[in-house]
Records
---
Amino acid sequence: MDMSFTPEQEAFRSEVREWIAQAMPPHIATKANNDGAFSNAEVMEWHKVLAAKGWVAPHWPKEFGGPGFDATQRFIFGQEMELAGTPQLSPFGLSMVGPLIMQFGNDAQKQRFLPKILSGEEVWCQGYSEPNAGSDLASLKTRAEKNAAGNYVLNGQKTWTTYAQYADWIFVLARTNPDVKQQAGISFFLVDMKTPGLTVKPFLTTGGTPAFCETWFENVEVPKENLIGQENMGWTYAKALLGHERTLVSGVGISARTLLRTKRLAKEIQKDGRPLLEDPGFRAKIARSEIKLEALRMTVLRSLASAQLGHAPGPESSILKLRGTDLQQETVDLLMEVLGHDSLTWFNPEGTVNPRGESAPSIFNYVRAATIYAGSNEIQKNIIAKMILGLPSA
């Protein structure tokens, strides 16, 4: 198999690289060069720069405002973004509910929501997880009941709603029929965060970031026009969205950046009078992680190529989630190893450690959740056993 790129593809790479260098605002470029953490305002600023270029959703088809990249162009584009250390955009609109609306939404929903997701005018969050219904998503308790006007009234609580405090809209799973099999009585709603009765309370993660929120629905009225597809068919749509999410949470870009950052630090930190990166044992660890990363990257690429042919993500996305999140934790472990004792304080005061390592302890704590969210890795192993290997249920 020829894995080399054509002259046209290399020219595309040069175009992307040069554009990023020119388009990234100076204050964002400075943070990117120093592996700094980006604020929500900076993430959205970069979103709008990409949107103005038409490159904010490289995986969207042209008819919905995407750039029409093929799978190889998306691969090259993603690589160049990783190498430049650009801010990671919020996935909830661009990579999750956006593709779902394209697949299952009606024309009015596509016209109403997709352009504002692209432009960054409206930001989304996800209302899936609930207290006491973590990995067993189908046991959710949030309910939606029709009122006299035919609209839906939502009551219940969601948790782990990532960055809900910044979101304009939330996509929500709610029970619309309690008298049937759990999976058969769920519907999928698009909810305006400004609706009366909807309350958001952020809380700190163990990494010290306000990434997660608890979200309450108290008699929140949702127009019937905001139901996706058919009532009680939400589980089907949820599984499709989870497929997109699990492809996404493979975290190829996150692991690639962490490895790049680790190698930069290992060049600067000395061990026995020479850079740590020259230590054979450490180099072997880096090499093992890079091989795993390339294998994962190629598997994601195959999945994206399949999606481009119109195939919805299937149970193979569980493999991406499983291997990807294991690798995220492995690469951050390497980063912590490079930092040594400087990694033992969770919140290093500014100036006390190498600037490239300041946020590493917080990332280490945050990424513990990677093997839990989007369906725990134990759940993914069950899916692989039953759906791919054909093994019987326990």
Note: The chain has twelve helices and nine strands.
---
Amino acid sequence: MDFKDSPEEASYRERVRHWLAENAPPFEVPPGTPADEEAYMHKARGWQARKADAGYVGIHWPEAVGGQGGTPIQHVLFHQEEERFSLPTIPYHVGMGMCLPTIFTHGTPAMMERFVKPGMRGEELWCQLFSEPAAGSDLAGVRTRAVRDGDDWVVNGQKVWTSYAHQSQFGILLARTDPEVPKHKGLTMFYIDMRAPGVEVRPIRTMLGDAEFNEVFLSDVRIPDSQRLGKVGDGWKVSLTTLMFERFAVGGKPAQAPGVGDLLELARARAGTADVLDTPGLEEALARFYVTDQGVALTRMRAMTAVSRGDVPGPEASIGKLVMAKTLQDMSAFALEMMGADAIDNRPASAASRYNYWYMWSSGLRIAGGTDEILRNVIAERVLGLPADIRVDRDIPFNKIGSA
């Protein structure tokens, strides 16, 4: 594990820091800011275009598809520095991290020419139509059907938890095209125009007050076969492309999230003149949070080291997200418990508002990108090498598998 940047990496990081200091502040949106979606999206589009114009979008993508031809470690370094600001980057995570890489890996040259550059500049937003009510964690169990009709496919089904579908112009869609083969073999990937007849998007409002997630209903939606990504029946293999690019995120704790120092400061403020460390259980709790935070940071450093050597982070990247999300929720809950009745103070600038925000936000994080249970299975089977769960439906034709 290498804790230091190489001279080349240090030089790149310094250049990024200087550019961010000059350009990022006008686009910042602090966490807990009252929801004004149109204002937020306006800033998000502006920030995406500013980055694209400066060459900080698609940093590690090939130049042939419109990227910068840089290294994966440069991509990671930029996003590490970008996380130090509260920037409106979330709407473009899915498109930049998964959809456009799928387009330029499995699409035609015409698709690359049409979609990559507008997507990079934020002129078009993309969503990912994967999760379904009966197949949220078992992606291979999707039941949305695509049936061939001449040069078109006719799609019927329902997707859910689709981030920013209500703002998106396009999406990538995983659909079942052959129910008579085992579930991993009967899937096909398409891209879809979100304004096509038969596409209905219903936003889901969360307890934070926003409506980032959506239900998407697909009723007799016609998709030309020219919008297919990869071969018929190869949808599972195509979807693995998205996972490969997603791992380059090498995610860690958001820079604005509370840390052990914040909890100690809060405890001191509430203790007044008393010795705060005499508070029963406080010392043990802070030590536990500190050790966990350090473990997450070192795990992220291990992934960084793999990227710097030209490797793709493996399934061990799941450890950071699993532990970080739960620890962030536990730390926020601990802070709110210390506040007692003051925790209901939800004025935008209050400490309680900040901890309430991170407590509720981390609840969603424990589901997004794989639930805690799914990640524990990944770590058990693919990192620790423990015996796999028994999967009785692995070789059974999909239409012979009962539904819940």
Note: The first strand starts at residue 126 and ends at 129.
